[in-house]
Write a structure and sequence with these properties.
Elements lengths: L1 H19 L2 H39 L1 H16 L8 H14 L3 H18 L8 H12 L6 H9 L9 H30 L1
Helix pairs in contact: 2-7, 3-4, 4-5, 5-6, 6-8
Length: about 200
């Protein structure tokens, strides 16, 4: 549906520009937008490659395993339906670690694998389990220590201090994650009461 809306908007704009005699401005905007998009992708790619490399070094050095062991008791309490040694737990912890370093794109494949593993534990094929809902809530709000993609965008557009948002991003993501977890727990208890 969204594709249709975008196509209709683009066609409407082009037809209006043709009737209005401003097709040259549309062409100029298209090429400028394409140029800006490629420049932004290159800037984001360099930062993403750097942090993915750092994640790989952290993985080889055992830092990610250490983080996983550190967070495992907390994650086990948040996801009581998942057995501690189930593969879903590993993917959840890897996803959280990637999100912690602001690597949303790198976290996505691990998030998908975590959902696939949780689906195997889910008795209902039509409804998401409590663990799946909680994971989605945390993944969406995700605490971020280093917002690498936002820093890259700020660097691309000439920010004088691209890293000055680190503190506020950390505070904002902690508040949203804690709020999301509290709301999730409240709604989980409410769902359990209604199912009795």
């Amino acid at each position: 549906m969204v594709n249709i809306i975008w196509a209709v908007m683009a066609c409407t704009g082009i037809i209006y520009a043709m009737l209005n005699g401003t097709m040259d401005k549309v062409n100029e905007a298209v090429f400028k937008g394409a140029n800006d998009a490629i420049t932004l992708v290159i800037a984001l790619t360099s930062v993403l490659v750097f942090w993915l490399g750092m994640m790989r070094i952290a993985e080889k050095a055992g830092i990610l395993r250490g983080l996983s062991r550190l967070f495992k008791p907390v994650v086990s309490k948040i996801f009581p339906e998942i057995p501690p040694d189930h593969p879903a737990m590993g993917y959840i912890l890897a996803n959280f670690s990637a999100n912690l370093f602001g690597l949303g794109n790198a976290a996505t494949p691990m998030g998908i694998k975590a959902m696939e593993e949780m689906k195997k534990l889910n008795n209902s094929a039509t409804y998401a389990s409590n663990s799946m809902i909680t994971f989605l809530v945390i993944n969406t709000s995700s605490i971020t220590l280093v917002p690498t993609q936002i820093i890259a965008i700020r660097m691309q557009y000439g920010s004088q201090a691209p890293t000055e948002i680190v503190g506020t991003t950390l505070i904002a993501t902690v508040v949203t994650t804690v709020s999301a977890l509290l709301i999730d727990q409240f709604l989980r208890k409410r769902r359990e009461l209604h199912s009795l």
